[in-house]
Amino acid sequence: MDGENAKMKRFDRDFKINTVKMVTEGGEKGSEVARRLGIHPNQIYNWKKKFAENGEKAFPGKGHLTEISALRKQVRELEMERDILKKAVGIFSKTTDNGSSL
Does 100 reside within a domain? Predict the structure, then answer.
């Protein structure tokens, strides 16, 4: 079958944004733009949805960069919390001069 051997088309970020803007700002119909560009109309609607949700951060490229950056932020926050807890344990586990705990 042709569909099994066909490669998926890849579109760069600028192409996607320009296509979405043709529909949102240019007032053109998504189906007309899709036909003219040779892509499926659902693709434009998917891009339009992603652009509406993420704005200029939409279509980061290969991988899930927005997810990665969110996870990195979460790791930094968790590391800060861990460091605070380590300091608190150190403070509360110190002994006074006579050997008793605080």
Answer: no
- 64 or 52, which is more confident? 52
d(CA 2, CA 77): 49
Residue 76, pLDDT above cutoff 90: yes
Are 70 and 57 members of one domain?
no
Give DSSP secondary structure letters for 13-75: HHHHHHHHHHHHTS---HHHHHHHHTS-HHHHHHHHHHHHHHGGGS--SSS-HHHHHHHHHHH
61 contacts 30 by C-beta, under 8 angstroms: no
Identify the domain containing residue 32 by its residue range: 9-61
Residues in the chain: 102
Q: Which residues touch 93 (CB under 8 Å, ≥6 apart)?
A: 101
- 35 falls in which pLDDT band (50, 70, 90)? very high
